[in-house]
Amino acid sequence: MRLNSLQSLNAARRKRVAAVLLTDHHADEEHVILEGDPIEEPFVALVERAFRSGRSIAFDSASASGFVNVYMPAPRIAIIGAVHISQCLTQMARLAGFDVRVIDPRTAFATRDRFPDVLLSADWPADALTADPLDRYTALVALTHDPKIDDFPLAAALRTGCFYIGALGSQKTHAARTERLAADGFGADALSTIHAPIGLDIGASNPAEIAVAILAQVIQALHSRRPSLSWDGPQ
User: Fold this and answer.
1) SS in 3 state form for the chain?
2) What's the CA gap between 225 and 102, in Å, rounded?
3) Number of domains in the chain
4) How far apart are CA 143 and CA 157, in angstroms?
5) Considering only Cβ atoms within 10 Å of each terminal Cβ, which end of the chain, N or C, has fewer?
6) Is residue 122 part of a domain?
7) Based on the domain organization, do 56 and 92 belong to the same domain?
8) Is residue 230 a part of any domain in this protein?
9) CB 207 within 8 A of CB 194
10) Which domain covers residue 16, as residue numbers?
11) pLDDT bucket at 228, cuts 50 / 70 / 90
């Protein structure tokens, strides 16, 4: 790997941007391509597949041969609400390989006893997400039922293009939620990306089962995401 390629990949890693290193042995060239960058033929489908799958690919044809090495940011889950479901979800998500953070300004819930060894913030989401913003490789899971706590991170997730956005609540609760977000400038297409009711429909009834349903839906969204998804909405 050439020094300029290494420097570009390190910069992408610091910014949590997906990148591939395209090495073409026939042309004796290598290129760093960031997710969202224009891609030249004949490598479009190859690079898009690498970004989508998160797996490196070897290629060999009459005109080119080499490797597409992909470097993806570690997937994260930002959980809004230090509730019982969150206690189960943090443990399961970490076992599945996710970096997890929990945000809840209610200090009676956001305690180290309830969430040992988890990145925990007792700040309001507006402050916590300003200090450590969401990105396209983060899933946003809102679990408080409280619009004063949930609405800001949901709007931030829509603007950012998080690969998964889910919110706990009944159909009535979600209808009121979408009305508030629509008044904030979000259209029907953006609002339809919010998973509510949250989680896959497996008949979950207790906190652990609901956590399983949520995590399964997050994993499904991660592996079916399309590269460079972002929504150009109100800022």
Assistant:
1) CCHHHHHHHHHHHHCCCCEEEEEECCCCEEEEEECCCCCCCCCHHHHHHHHHHCCCEEEECCCCEEEEEEECCCCEEEEECCCHHHHHHHHHHHHCCCEEEEECCCCCCCCCCCCCCCEEECCCHHHHHHHCCCCCCEEEEECCCCHHHHHHHHHHHHHHCCCEEEECCCHHHHHHHHHHHHHCCCCHHHHCCEECCCCCCCCCCCHHHHHHHHHHHHHHHHHHCCCCCCCCCCC
2) 23
3) 2
4) 14
5) C
6) yes
7) no
8) no
9) no
10) 3-71
11) low
Whether residue 80 is found in the same domain as residue 175: yes
144 confidence band (pLDDT: 50, 70, 90): very high
Query: Is 234 contained in some domain?
Result: no
Dihedral sign for Cα atoms in the order 173, 175, 177, 179 = negative
Cα separation, 83 vs 115, whole angstroms: 10
Residue 42 has pLDDT above 90, yes or no: no
Count of all residues that appear for the chain in the document: 235
pLDDT computed for residue 227 by the predictor: 59
Contact between residue 89 and residue 142 where contact means Cβ atoms under 8 Å apart: no
Amino acid 15: pLDDT: 87
> Are 94 and 169 contained in the same domain?
yes
Instruction: Give the number of other CB atoms < 10 A from CB of residue 6.
Output: 12
Residue type, position 214, single letter: I
AA letter at 182: A
Choose one of 49, 71, 93: the last residue of a domain.
71
Look-up of token digits 């079916």: 224
Q: Mean pLDDT, to the nearest integer, of 83-101?
A: 97
